[in-house]
């Protein structure tokens, strides 16, 4: 019985643990994306690291909830304003080489991202 309990505790531990960084990396330059626009969903629990080239545009689409998208540092700045409309779209075209960090102000702990722009 003790071995069964220990087995289930170990199983639950490994099922609940995650060795990843909980983020999503979107590499627009992997050879599979020839588009000038990268589309990302913007909802609770999303955190992105997106790698793009100068001149590419990222479009974030709200997937429910009251959110905004505002920069917290880096080479570019933008502010979407707040919207609670599902399907709301905010886009930004990146024109400067470097990194830009962004968050959703009321959900900063689990809605954030970074855009890395290269030539």
Describe this structure in words.
- This protein has 1 helix and 8 strands; from the N terminus they run H-E-E-E-E-E-E-E-E.
- The protein is mainly beta.
- It has one domain (21-118): Cupredoxins -  blue copper proteins (Immunoglobulin-like), CATH 2.60.40.
- It has a 5-stranded mixed beta sheet, with no helix packed on it. It has a 3-stranded mixed beta sheet with strand order 2-4-6, with no helix packed on it.
- A hairpin with an 8-residue loop joins strand 7 and strand 8.
- The longest helix is centred in the N-terminal third of the chain and has 15 residues, at 2-16.
- It is globular and about 35 Å long.
Key traits:
single chain; 119 residues; mainly beta; Immunoglobulin-like; five-stranded mixed beta sheet; three-stranded mixed beta sheet; 13% helix; globular
Give a quick rundown of the structure.
This protein has 119 residues and is mostly beta strands. It has 1 helix and 8 strands. It is globular.
Task: Measure the end-to-end span.
Answer: 61 Å
- Structural class by secondary-structure content: mainly beta
What best-fitting shape do the alpha-carbon axes yield? globular
Q: How many structural units, i.e. domains?
A: 1
Low-confidence stretches: 6-23, 28-33
Q: How is the CATH topology named?
A: Immunoglobulin-like
CATH class: Mainly Beta
- Topology as a string of helices (H) and strands (E): HEEEEEEEE
User: What fraction, in percent, of the residue positions are helical?
Assistant: 10-25%
* Radius of gyration, CA atoms, in whole angstroms: 18 Å
Mean pLDDT reading: 82
Q: Which range does the strand content fall in?
A: 35-45%
Please give the CATH architecture: Sandwich
List the strand order in the largest sheet. Answer: 1-3-8-7-5
Main pleated-sheet profile: 5 strands, mixed
């Amino acid at each position: 019985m003790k071995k069964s309990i220990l087995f289930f505790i170990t199983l639950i531990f490994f099922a609940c643990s995650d060795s990843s960084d909980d983020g999503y990396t979107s590499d627009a330059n992997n050879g599979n994306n020839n588009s000038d626009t990268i589309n990302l969903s913007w909802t609770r629990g999303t955190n992105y690291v997106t790698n793009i080239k100068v001149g590419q545009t990222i479009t974030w689409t709200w997937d429910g909830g009251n959110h905004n998208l505002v920069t917290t540092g880096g080479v570019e700045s933008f502010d979407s304003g707040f919207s609670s409309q599902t399907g709301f779209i905010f886009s930004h075209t990146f024109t400067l080489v470097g990194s830009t960090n962004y968050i959703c102000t009321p959900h900063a702990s689990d809605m954030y991202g970074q855009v890395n722009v290269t030539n």
